[in-house]
């Protein structure tokens, strides 16, 4: 048996999220079926993060153990031809047996994409949230900065979230204006259920002046889901990267806690 | 009755092309139904070009005549909220009565997007053609240059194409390398059925060395569909722009007949 690390892209639109659920088409279930077809035995595929229904990934990581004695890239090609076009395995590596996609991960990076122009986009309607109203970006950046550090994120957790502890460490938050897109990126050691979607929903209320940046911090400190704004749509969210290196090793020169990056 | 010009974006994946067909969901049919709901009468919507099933648009133009006495932007907003998210009206203008989306057009610009890397893309599988083999870009550029000018394009017309004349004028052809994408753009006074998909299919055979650039010109001159390569998938194709100005007015400084533009 060899332990493999898979790196994955997927369009989550047509899936009921990552995790296997009876009678539902999920990313994990689709991958497990493809692996079983390839190796002829049941294979359990473990994901680094359980993305919700409709959430996409450009850099999800999964691990599995299987009897496969060809080069790892042969498994990559076999999986890609066996999977539907909206799930792509971009890399396969053989790992030490102790590698575990979820437990070995140090941090993850997610992106939420807002489309800020007068009219929605037909070609991007699956990948960004259309925001037709003007946004005060400076206020959003100021509010976003207060997320950084080790905090109780109960305010930004789904009411039915079931994490043992609501404490997470956010290493960095970035805003980036790319043409008509305002992109929000967040790097943390882990995320509570719906955490990013509730954070961005609340930041949007900061951006439109309903909440002041200083109120955002008070809402966060209140540790009460009812204080925050609604959970926004999953389709603007994408898991970009799962890192197996400590954050400060990877990104030594983070200068500002929350900045607008122009690109 | 006022004549309106609509500018449109659409994701063609879920439509049987532009043109109304009985029992099929089409872009034209969906637009006409939305207009009818808004003005309470049957409205005929005329497109600048009849895109095939699966082809997208970022700048399709349509014209219609209707009794609508509010500002044109009110019609844009009414249409956008009435249409499904994969069809977006980006602009509405009131025009002189002689304006006709198809007959008044001087030229159109289409883009075909190739994804040239080792593995396909899950998030772009609806918008680009995956090309896993290496391409000789210089040979493709040389061959593409021979398309420019006024020619009989019978070689690059669907076998069941029904155009009165196979003669078209190609004003410009461009290749652009954008990260992992090789983008082909073509501007012409009109296009025969499947013309761009057959041209790009044949250029791909030039790129992989099956056809020399000089053979490409001979194939074109042969005026026989059987000489060209197969019609490639519609999903990499997108109608970018319909222009109502003569080409040389719009783009005075076209330097090279067919060039690689780096961006």
Automatic annotation (TrEMBL), chains A, B:
Reaction catalyzed: uridine(38/39/40) in tRNA = pseudouridine(38/39/40) in tRNA
Role this protein plays: Formation of pseudouridine at positions 38, 39 and 40 in the anticodon stem and loop of transfer RNAs.
GO biological process: tRNA pseudouridine synthesis
Keyword Nucleotide-binding: no
Binding, substrate: 110
Entry keyword set: Isomerase, tRNA processing
Ranges where the Pseudouridine synthase I TruA alpha/beta domain occurs: 9-101, 146-244
High-level lineage: Bacteria, Candidatus Methylomirabilota, Candidatus Methylomirabilia, Candidatus Methylomirabilales, Candidatus Methylomirabilaceae
UniProt similarity note: Belongs to the tRNA pseudouridine synthase TruA family.
E.C. no: 5.4.99.12
InterPro entries reported in the protein's UniProt record: PsdUridine_synth_cat_dom_sf, PsdUridine_synth_TruA, PsdUridine_synth_TruA_a/b_dom, PsdUridine_synth_TruA_C, TruA/RsuA/RluB/E/F_N
UniProt entry tagged with the keyword tRNA processing: yes
Listed name of the protein: tRNA pseudouridine synthase A
Residue numbers annotated as active site: 52
Subunit structure as annotated in this protein's UniProt entry: Homodimer.
EC main group: isomerase
Domain of life of the organism encoding this protein: Bacteria
Single GO MF annotation: RNA binding
């Amino acid at each position: 048996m060899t332990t493999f690390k898979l790196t994955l892209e997927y369009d989550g639109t047509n899936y009921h999220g990552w995790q296997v659920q009876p009678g539902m088409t999920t990313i994990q279930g689709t991958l497990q079926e493809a692996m079983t077809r390839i190796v002829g035995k049941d294979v359990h595929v473990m994901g680094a993060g359980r993305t919700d229904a409709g959430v996409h990934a450009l850099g999800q990581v999964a691990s599995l153990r299987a009897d496969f004695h060809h080069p790892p890239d042969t498994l990559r090609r076999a999986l890609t031809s066996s999977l539907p076009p909206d799930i792509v395995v971009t890399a396969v590596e053989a790992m030490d047996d102790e590698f575990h996609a979820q437990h070995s991960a140090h941090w993850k990076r997610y992106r939420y994409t807002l489309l800020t122009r007068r009219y929605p986009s037909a070609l991007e309607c699956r990948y960004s949230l259309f925001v037709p109203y003007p946004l005060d970006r400076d206020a959003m950046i100021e509010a976003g900065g207060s997320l950084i550090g080790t905090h109780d994120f109960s305010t930004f957790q789904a009411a039915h979230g079931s994490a043992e502890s609501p404490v997470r460490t956010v290493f960095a938050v970035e805003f980036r204006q790319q043409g008509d897109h305002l992109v929000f990126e967040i790097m943390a050691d882990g995320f509570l259920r719906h955490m990013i979607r509730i954070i961005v929903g609340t930041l949007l209320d900061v951006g439109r002046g309903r909440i002041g940046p200083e109120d955002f911090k008070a809402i966060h400190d209140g540790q009460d889901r009812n204080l925050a704004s609604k959970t926004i749509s999953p389709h603007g969210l994408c898991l970009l990267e799962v890192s197996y290196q400590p954050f400060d090793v990877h990104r030594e020169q983070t200068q500002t806690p929350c900045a607008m990056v122009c690109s």
